[in-house]
Design brief:
355 residues; alpha/beta; three-stranded mixed beta sheet; 10 strands; 31% helix
């Protein structure tokens, strides 16, 4: 009772603040003497309670992230490729002077091919980094390969390196290119002038036959070259049948009758038919082909067709390949015009592996 009376008196005379101060001191007093309590009734003698705010925690100031560098320009992206091609060209020209091979300094190199001992042809197309997109087996021993439109022979020699027995097919002459008869003389003259050739036979040697023969010799290759248009291929003409792999590398665009060509090649393949093409990204519900013949008059006058994915798939299925798929894509740069391009790789197979 005395305690309650005291509490009431403090509240009446000194207020809640004084009561809280007294209670706090009483509760925290542990041993020893403490300052005497201020006299009752003298509120002014009590110091006002001090509330001290906590000092703000100092946090390290985070540095602003560095500005994002601008993306490299097309010229900067191409610079390493340009420098590599220039290096290959200069190195090959220097090495070629010491190699006794007729017309070597005038050859056109369609493919970049590593011939060993640091000798690499400075090709317009370098497929060396693109090979994973084709899904060729690493070990092709015991397999037969037909490479149609083989040009300098990159794919033929690559498959041979993996152990395959290879037949490489190319046109027998420039005159057998698929061109409009009335334009043939003009188109072929452009090619002859490009090579500085006095005759079409000389132009053909520099453009197709000579480069392949040189690589064949340097590699000590056993690839067998067959000269024919695609339309005239047969087991009799090739001396072989039942190829495990048939390669049509980017040639459908240059054929006036691409479906006829597929119809001719299909019976020769007992395994996988490989078709590469620049596929148009257009309507996929319909099989569409686009005629390029008018546009190509301003370029090579030898490009005729473009296809969408369904068109190539349907054509392959129609000639007997019921398992058709896109197994890869690759992007590269045309040298030395430095035009980027992309190709799709199609595989056509027959279920069960037979015809």
């Amino acid at each position: 009772m005395k305690l309650m009376a005291k509490v009431r008196r403090i509240l009446a005379d000194e207020g809640v603040a004084a009561l809280l101060v007294r209670v706090g001191r009483k509760a925290t007093r542990v041993g020893g003497s403490s300052p005497p309590a201020p006299p009752a009734g003298n509120a002014e003698a009590l110091p006002a309670p001090v509330v001290q705010a906590e000092a703000p925690v100092e946090r390290p100031v985070e540095a602003a992230p560095p500005p994002t560098p601008p993306p490299p320009s097309p010229a900067e992206l191409l610079q390493p490729i340009v420098e590599e091609h220039e290096r290959l060209t200069a190195n090959f020209a220097e090495r070629a002077r010491a190699i006794p091979f007729p017309g070597l300094d005038r050859f056109y190199w369609y493919h970049t091919i590593d011939l060993g001992d640091g000798l690499v042809t400075p090709g317009q197309y370098d497929f060396r980094s693109c090979m994973p997109a084709f899904h060729f087996p690493d070990d092709m021993r015991g397999m037969k390969v037909l490479d149609v439109g083989s040009a300098t022979g990159f794919f033929a020699f690559e498959c041979e390196k993996r152990g395959a027995q290879v037949v490489s097919v190319e046109l027998p002459s420039l005159q057998t290119w698929d061109v409009i008869p009335e334009e043939r003389a003009r188109v072929l003259q452009v090619i002859a002038d490009y090579h500085g050739a006095a005759t079409l036979e000389e132009a053909y040697y520099r453009h197709l036959r000579g480069p392949f023969d040189f690589c064949h010799q340097q590699l000590g290759s056993s690839v067998r070259r067959c000269y024919s248009t695609i339309y005239k291929l047969s087991a009799e003409a090739l001396g072989e049948r039942d190829f495990d792999w048939v390669i049509l590398g980017d040639i459908l665009i240059h054929l006036m009758s691409p479906f006829e060509a597929l119809k001719v090649v299909a019976p020769l393949c007992r395994g996988t038919l490989v078709v590469t093409a620049d596929v148009m990204g257009v309507e996929e519900s319909l099989p569409l082909a686009c005629f390029f013949g008018k546009m190509s008059m301003a370029t090579d006058a030898r490009s005729w067709w473009g296809f969408n994915r369904k068109c190539i798939t349907d054509m392959l299925e129609r000639v007997g390949f019921d398992e058709v798929s896109v197994v890869g894509k690759y992007s590269e740069v045309l040298r030395p015009s430095w035009v980027p391009f992309q190709r799709w790789v199609f595989h056509g197979k027959r279920s069960g592996g037979g015809r």
